[in-house]
């Protein structure tokens, strides 16, 4: 659990982060959204003390983050940034091993962990381990960056626009991978982005920041349904709201009784995808199948449209 | 078939043609200080070898002139250079009257131009072959061995520059080692001081502008003026600091030469360290900090290795510059190859000047090739990330 209490950061007369308090539950993903200059990156960097706050306190599992030397604190927290920041003079394997080496793990344990992470990220350790970062594609570099951040099995992972430099297709894949890995390791993730789409997709909770202040901190559905201010409303994008709302729900939650013609849609697809498929194919209903391939029922345009309406 | 010309080859062929047919190949002098008489290739060599050399030069020039395969060009340049190097020695023996120890035979403009032309061809071929760093050092070693063999074999002993050497063999090696000590010693001192200073300049912004400006100003002081400026303070140190004189510190001699070379070396070392450290990708630095490296671990593990090729470039500049500048040290009694240059100038004996100048140039050239190779080897794996 991460408790941020009354955190303020001032540079001379400019207040970059203004009295922010929030609690991030363990094993969840909190996404901090805001425009550039909103203080979201500064807030993130105060958690691992790359920036020291002017006032306030941050507690990790109850311990003040100033209770140990800053470099020791940082070794216990994963850190991944935009442009991944891989060391160009070290191989992929050496890059991933950075924190374990700093922590003094023995060689066998380091190698096992590096191999495990590379396999997890679909990079063959034999083939890619000895390569240098510039020999990889952008998507591969990004995966190595996240693998490196996770190497020492941190409970907390800080990510600053980790997908910012990726093209849309690779980005979607990277987001899915991260969600899968978060489930697997149960890591608490705090992710900074300016992309509301990404926030809705990734976040268990979303924190919206504007001009250094925390404007709203709530579940995605609530942010969409009840934006706390005009700023949040603009950030959400008025015309996008219904679709974002639908993208939060699974098809299996919108299943109605009955049957329909044509190719079935899997139950774990998003309701937004189901609506898109219905509209595009000009049908009024789609069959839904479960993970085992058995029919679950159907989804209808009318049913989905009702779900896309502003919640009461 | 259309005949196609090589652009550089046209220049090489023109130089070779002028040098072979119009310029003198060797100079004959009755003794070491009288003006010389020019001898063409046919006059300077025995009846059989003269035409042979002309044929080799003409063939080599034609190969250079036309668009020919690289291997052929490589062979042509190597054969021509080898022939020139061997036959200049033959010319020396041929032109020296039997039993005459005063006569001096030296290579003349035609010979030097031919060497230049075919070295140009060789350099062009080597560049186009895109050799690996190790291969380039290998070529250098082979060339050095070939020259060494020619020297040991006595093939060149009849040439004036080696006659000057024969008279000064002992002092040649003594001055040579002094020269290398001055150039390398001041470099080592500059690296020992300059690297930490560069790191400090990188970390402390206020210091950076000041330090670099001071070093820039030192760099603009002419070397002789700097020697002059150092005489007074070093003389004072020698007179007033106990033990300083015993260490060899005096107003003139090796000490001021060493200090001057050291001061000249500082700017390239410090400036390149600062530039190299500034060129370390921001993201890599941020990641290093964010993952819990201490400042020291970040400096030695990330910043320094990434800045290393740029720092090495500074060291290369300094070494080549120092090998040349150390020549001037002789002016204030600092020793080195400059001793022969200034003695030769004083005696109007060009051969003696060459005895000082040729090894200096060869040293600088070899240092440049070796350090370039080292820089390339360290840089290949450290390309800056593109993101």
UniProtKB/TrEMBL annotation, chain A:
Keyword Iron listed? The answer is: no
Top-rank taxon, per record: Bacteria
Record domain ABC transporter: where: 2-236
GO terms for molecular function, please? ATP binding; ATP hydrolysis activity
Q: Which GO terms describe its biological process?
A: quaternary ammonium group transport
Checking SMART domains in the record gives: AAA
Ordered alphabetically, the record's keywords are: ATP-binding, Nucleotide-binding, Transport
Protein family according to the UniProt entry = Belongs to the ABC transporter superfamily.
Record's protein name? ABC transporter
Source organism per entry reads: Mesorhizobium amorphae CCNWGS0123
